[in-house]
Design goal:
By secondary structure, the chain is an alpha/beta fold. It is built from 13 helices and ten strands. 43% of the residues lie in helices and 15% in strands.
Length: 314
């Protein structure tokens, strides 16, 4: 039996959300265990993406066309993208920071590309050796060519809550950069809580500020679980018209700014939350859980998903 309060809560929630799976790229790019596997790592990535393609997921970030010196674990992205068994209903995306990367992505029929910048000047300098404005300027030719090839463009915006070097980030800064990226031609900006320090009230404050200027469908959320707040923050975002959630199978991907802490929120845990809220995702939780558990076993690591851990030991 529902009550007035229960009905009011349900009314604030969306009927359907899109799960944007980032495990094969964002989750694995800093995975130290891959380095010792050589060509087997490529095989494991292909098998992971193929398996995830059969779960009902519609968006799978599958690679990054970046300098192998900067991110060696993504050096095989062309090989991975050219060998996966593509499902027609799945969009296979990749990170492409420059024209060279975009060309490589186009050559292997990438369905969508992503660009990346930050709300923090110091973070941007340390990560890509450029200011925020310089990083955005670099995207202009990438976005122009992508549009010529009719490729959708998504943007990742990091440090939307806090920066490990500069502290708190203002909502005005986040909104301004997000609007610039949308004006340039990005269909959506994914808001990254890079060090996982956000809490629901701070999320509400940021989204309230952004909604005054940017439509909700142009905003996605990408919460890290370093301080155990990711699901609470996602629940808050769901109550504020957000319908795209980034997550990583088995919670792949640690937080380099909080040693020992988990990074990406686990897809399994997000699916369980949505299931409990009566929100349709179109994704099979049991399949994703089994895939995450099997992959972690092959890699010799422990799944960060609490849901998967329970489902693996009924």
């Amino acid at each position: 039996m529902t009550t007035k309060i229960t009905n009011q809560l349900k009314e604030k929630l969306p009927k359907h959300v899109t799960i944007f799976e980032v495990g094969p790229r964002d989750g694995l790019q800093n995975e130290p265990h891959l380095a010792s596997l050589g060509s087997k790592a490529t095989t494991l990535k292909i098998e992971l993406i193929n398996a995830l393609s059969e779960t009902g997921l519609r968006h799978i970030e599958s690679g990054a066309f970046v300098s192998p010196k900067m991110i060696p674990t993504m050096a095989d992205s062309s090989s991975v993208m050219s060998q996966i068994n593509r499902q027609p209903q799945v969009c296979y995306s990749a990170l492409t920071p420059n024209l060279k990367g975009l060309e490589a992505a186009i050559n292997v029929n990438t369905n969508e590309i992503a660009v990346f910048t930050s709300c923090s000047e110091t973070f941007t300098q340390k990560n890509i050796n450029a200011s925020i404005s310089e990083s955005i300027k670099r995207f202009e030719p990438v976005i122009a060519v992508a549009h010529q090839h009719l490729l959708p463009i998504r943007a990742y915006l990091s440090c939307v809550m806090d920066c490990p070097y500069e502290g708190k980030t203002s909502a005005a800064q986040v909104t301004s950069i997000a609007q610039t990226l949308i004006d340039m031609g990005c269909y959506q900006v994914s808001l990254g809580d890079t060090i996982g320090t956000g809490t629901p009230l701070r999320v509400a404050y940021l989204l309230e500020a952004m909604h005054k200027q940017i439509i909700a469908s142009a905003i996605a959320v990408h919460f890290h679980d370093s301080y155990g707040q990711a699901l609470a923050n996602i629940y808050q975002a769901l109550q504020m018209e957000i319908t795209t959630i980034d997550s990583s199978v088995a919670g792949l991907g640690g937080c380099p700014y909080a040693p020992g802490a988990s990074g990406n929120v686990a897809t399994e845990d997000v699916l369980y939350l949505c299931q409990g809220l009566g929100i349709d995702t179109g994704v099979d939780l049991k399949k994703v859980s089994a895939i995450g558990h099997a992959f972690c076993t092959q890699l010799g690591i422990r799944s960060q998903s609490k849901v998967s851990s329970v489902m693996a030991h009924p």
